C-alpha cells in the first residue's frame, strides 16, 4: 500500500519504502530496548558490553566509531559502565596516549550470561520472517546502507 500518491511514481515508492523501514526499525528497536532494560542496562551500555564481549578491548575512539556515536557520548557511557565495575580503562602498551576500554571479569560474566538470552529474543522477533526472508532483508539493508554516501 502506498503512503502517498502525490510526488510521482519513483518518489512515492521511495517515500513509502522509507516510511516502512522507519516504522519497522522503530518497532524492532522498541522491543529490543524493552528486553535490554531487564538486564539493568541502557541500550548504549548494552551495545558497548556486546561490542567488547565479541571483539575484545579497543581504544575508546574505535569503540565510538563502531557504535556510531560521538566521543563525548561514549566517554559518558564508559564512565557509567566503569562505575558499575563492568569495564576498565588502561593505557595501550604500544602507545601510552591511547586509552583501551575492556570488560572486567564482572563485565565478561554479565556478557556471557545475558547475550545468549538477548540473541534468543532477537530470534523470536525475527521469526515473523522465514530464514530466506531474513537473509534477503539483511542483504538489501546492507546494500541500502553501503550505497548511501553519508
Give a verbal description of the structure.
The chain has 150 residues and is mainly α. The chain folds into two domains: 37 residues; 101 residues, Arc Repressor Mutant, subunit A. The chain contains six helices and three strands; from the N terminus they run ααβααββαα. It has a three-stranded antiparallel beta sheet. A hairpin with a 7-residue loop joins strand 2 and strand 3. Helix 1 packs across helix 5. The longest helix has 29 residues. The protein is globular, with a radius of gyration of 19 Å. The protein starts with 8 loop residues before the first helix and ends with a helix. 13% of the residues are buried. The mean pLDDT is 91.
State mean pLDDT (0 to 100 scale).
91
CATH architecture of the largest domain: Orthogonal Bundle
- How would the global form be characterised? globular
Biggest beta sheet summary: 3 strands, antiparallel
Tell me the Rg in angstroms: 19 Å
Q: Give me the CATH superfamily of the largest domain.
A: Winged helix-like DNA-binding domain superfamily/Winged helix DNA-binding domain
Low-confidence stretches: none
Helix-strand category = mainly alpha
Distance between the termini: 29 Å
> What is the string of helix and strand elements?
HHEHHEEHH
* Number of continuous helical runs: 6
Number of strands: 3
- Strand proportion: 5-15%
Q: How is the largest sheet built, in terms of strand order?
A: 1-3-2
CATH topology annotation of the largest domain:
Arc Repressor Mutant, subunit A
Could you estimate the helical fraction of the residues in percent? Answer: 55-70%
- The CATH C-level name of the largest domain is Mainly Alpha
Query: How many domains would you count in the coordinates?
Result: 2
Amino acid at each position: 500500500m502506498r503512503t502517498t500518491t502525490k510526488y510521482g511514481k519513483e518518489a512515492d515508492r521511495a517515500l513509502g519504502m522509507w516510511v516502512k523501514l522507519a516504522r519497522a526499525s522503530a518497532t524492532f528497536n522498541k522491543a529490543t530496548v524493552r528486553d535490554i532494560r531487564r538486564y539493568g542496562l541502557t541500550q548504549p551500555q548494552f551495545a558497548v558490553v556486546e561490542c567488547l564481549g565479541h571483539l575484545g578491548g579497543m581504544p575508546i575512539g574505535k569503540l565510538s566509531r563502531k557504535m556510531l556515536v560521538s566521543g563525548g557520548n561514549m566517554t559518558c557511557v564508559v564512565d557509567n559502565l566503569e562505575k558499575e565495575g563492568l569495564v576498565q580503562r588502561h593505557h595501550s602498551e604500544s602507545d601510552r596516549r591511547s586509552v583501551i576500554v575492556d570488560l572486567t571479569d564482572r563485565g565478561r560474566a554479565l556478557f556471557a550470561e545475558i547475550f545468549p538470552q538477548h540473541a534468543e529474543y532477537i530470534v523470536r522477533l525475527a521469526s515473523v520472517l522465514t530464514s530466506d526472508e531474513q537473509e534477503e532483508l539483511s542483504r538489501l539493508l546492507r546494500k541500502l546502507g553501503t550505497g548511501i554516501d553519508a
